Fold this protein.
Amino acid sequence: MLIGVLGLQGDYREHQKLLNELGVESIKVRRASELEKVDALIIPGGESTAMSNLAKSFGLFPALRDFAKAKPVLGTCAGMIMLADDVEGSIPGQEFIGGLPIKVSRNAYGGQTHSFESEVDFGTLKEKVAFIRAPRILDSSKVEVLATLNGEAVAVRSGHLFGASFHPEITGSKFLHNLFLEHCKIAKD
């Protein structure tokens, strides 16, 4: 199994390092031809406007949208914004991949100076993750909630699409990646 990590902007290196620690091969994806080689994709945290502009410049949106319709994708922080169907606070003309039936609000947990680490509840365990200019999930009524913070959804799943408000790769949290990889193995078989 080969996992792609969208390498346009953001912390793609940290996701690749975490995948390596989990014994999973990964490649950085910047072109549609690279996307064709992978079984699943992780869209990292970063800055959703910059990520959107770069995806547009690289002509990646058609390939990313087709991929997200058919194969597993995990979006963390800005990556979740890119997957969300409804984005509050987006820049006029900003494009998204879509497919994840949630409503999110960009930077709703506060700006850079309000970043924090906290334990999120996955139901069976709690893990420390980082919230950096994190989006808030405003509507999770059409998805499965995977993790909460103070009773609020912070990680969700709908079919083969996963999204999280936080950065698990910064604190070394592996639970979300393991859930995603389990799904990828089932999807590949």
Q: What stands out?
A: DSSP finds seven helices and twelve strands in the chain.
